[in-house]
Amino acid sequence: MLQSMAALQSLLIGVVLIWSARIKLLDRRAADQVGTSALGTLLGSGRAVPAYRLLGGVELVLGILLVVPPAPVAEPVAASTLAAGFVGYLWYARRAAPGSSCGCLSAKATPVTGRSIARAGGLALAGLLGAVAAGGGYWLSAVVDQPAASVALLLAEVAALVALSPEFDAAWLLPLRRLRARLTHPLRGGSGIPLLASVQQLQLSGAYRQVAALLTSDVREHWLEQPWRMVCYSARYQGRPATAIFAVPAADAAPERVRVALVDDSTGATLLSLTDPAYAS
């Protein structure tokens, strides 16, 4: 069983490297961000893009070698070494150019986080595990011999990689946070009013005035949850990234009834919940 698990790591890492190479070699948006990233700081903006493309080429070659037979020990060891190098680079990037885009698995500008570093570390460990399978069989044999277990393991590992990839948060994490806000309603206690009217109403509220200095974005998203229209802004509270969720009366204009909750972006915990002081009294 361990041999089969180890053999599957070459497939996993190979697919990840090919995906990453596609971004580096084919997506112009990702290359445009490299000059201002930590790679640009390290190599200079003029050499950053060629180095980025070269890395994509290395990833593509190594990814293909990992996916196709045979399966010598050198391939997963090389992948593990490359991933270990990513760990070092991402650690450096987080300190040398905080807020710069990773450029790893998506062209979307996504700052390096602890999850990005953990993902690279996980791939390094997977490469070492894959080396155990060297000489013991190709990954396809493991899939044929134990299809259900192989598919389950690969799906679990892919899910872990996605969870550790901030680039994909918009596809799964933000919808889950929105669903959580709807189900748990941190402000608990058919609208004909346009969004602009709701925004004007909340801006006239005491709740808005209490947190206005904490907001860092315009309206990020909104939805109806009768009798409220929920309006979300990005915010920072005590140095922590958060989401400000305003509950605005959906059926009538009543700024004094507007409420707001600040929800921690990392944990989902409610950091602060406020109403209009005049209405609360």
Please specify the SSE layout and strand pairing.
Elements: H1 2-26, H2 28-34, H3 38-43, H4 45-67, H5 74-96, H6 114-132, H7 139-145, H8 147-163, H9 169-184, H10 195-203, H11 206-211, E1 221-225, E2 228-237, E3 240-249, E4 259-264, E5 270-275, H12 277-280
Antiparallel strand pairs: 1-2, 2-3, 3-4, 4-5
Helix pairs in contact: 1-4, 1-6, 1-7, 1-8, 4-5, 5-6, 7-8
Tell me what you see in this structure.
This protein has 281 residues and is α+β, with helices and mostly antiparallel strands. The chain has two domains: 2-183, no CATH class; 195-279, Nuclear Transport Factor 2, Chain: A, CATH 3.10.450. The protein has twelve helices and five strands. It has helices at 2-26, 28-34, 38-43, 45-67, 74-96, 114-132, 139-145, 147-163, 169-184, 195-203, 206-211, 277-280, and strands spanning 221-225, 228-237, 240-249, 259-264, 270-275. Helix 1 runs antiparallel to helix 4 and helix 1 (2-26) packs across helix 6. The longest helix has 25 residues, at 2-26. It is elongated. The termini are far apart. Residues 6-131 form the Methylamine utilisation protein MauE domain. It is found in: Membrane. InterPro entries: Methylamine_util_MauE (IPR009908).
